[in-house]
């Protein structure tokens, strides 16, 4: 059995996927790399097959009809043999030194017979076009270099949310929680993080700048104009998060608070994108989304509506919408996406 499975969803990734694979190969035989060719029309399939041939004990190429990012993550999980599971997008990469340190920690868990449900590390927004990068670390939130529980977690800043880039899950935990991401849907990375959280009992944080997240492609899913075009998919993910749990029933207070805040941020993003589009159709979708939450859970509706960020999202008229967008722009700079 491998120590870590690295799943790399690939869709028309011929121009950058090899770099992603090279940075994962640093792990050697402890690592299994699953390349999921998600119905690509370029040379992605050929490259995946070649890499499998060149590294037969590490790289595995799987070809499937196009199902979107979520379907590729599902395929990787279904075929994973590693004790732990990590998703690496094909245009991103790992830091070599940080990766080796993470593998040392995972290896130590195996050697002493212990283990954790979730390992966390820093990630870096890489923006080559602006010649800068932004490191997101969790110092002050998580204890470092020790196993801890939700009781030990401190207060999160808005920029310190747990994202797919920062998390490595125990493979069996993902299977136990029944994680299955929807097909043909963007923004499912939020579900990948959110859905397993109530199953996480212990964690470990390593203060290394591990995952390098490339920002800058015009067709990138977090580009604002692209998000507006795909707003129905954002709303779909938002509603699945609402439906996933009755958060009021979660016994762990800090876990519950974090999941409320996570859901609030996603709902704010959905709301602002609908506002920024400026169309009557999308303003109606905004009302429908909030009404959906209201019908599902009136208490949750009021909690989100009165939250620190959510409270600015439903101010009436054009003036209210301007305030909403201004609040969003501030959070956008803090978080660093788009």
Structural overview:
The chain is an alpha/beta fold and 338 residues long. Helix content is 44%, strand content 18%. The protein contains 12 helices and 10 strands. Strands 1, 2, 3, 4, 5, 6, 7, 8, 9 and 10 form a 10-stranded mixed beta sheet that branches. Strand 1, helix 1 and strand 2 form a beta-alpha-beta unit. Helix 9 packs antiparallel against helix 10, helix 9 crosses helix 12 and helix 10 crosses helix 11. The protein starts with a strand and ends with a helix.
Defining key terms:
338 residues; alpha/beta; ten-stranded mixed beta sheet; globular
Shape: globular
Provide the gyration radius in Å: 20 Å
**How many beta-strand segments?**
10
- Structural class by secondary-structure content: alpha/beta
Strand proportion, as a percent range, falls in 15-25%
Question: What's the SSE pattern?
Answer: EHEHEHEEHEEEEHHEHHHHHH
Sequence stretches where pLDDT stays below 50 over 5 or more residues: 333-338
Short recap of the structure:
The chain contains 12 helices and 10 strands.
Blueprint (SSEs and pairs):
Blueprint lengths: L3 E7 L6 H8 L6 E8 L5 H11 L4 E6 L3 H12 L4 E4 L5 E2 L1 H16 L6 E10 L4 E5 L10 E2 L18 E4 H6 L12 H6 L8 E12 L9 H6 L1 H14 L8 H25 L2 H17 L1 H8 L11 H19 L3
Parallel strand pairs: 1-2, 1-4, 2-3, 6-10
Antiparallel strand pairs: 4-9, 5-10, 6-7, 6-9, 8-10
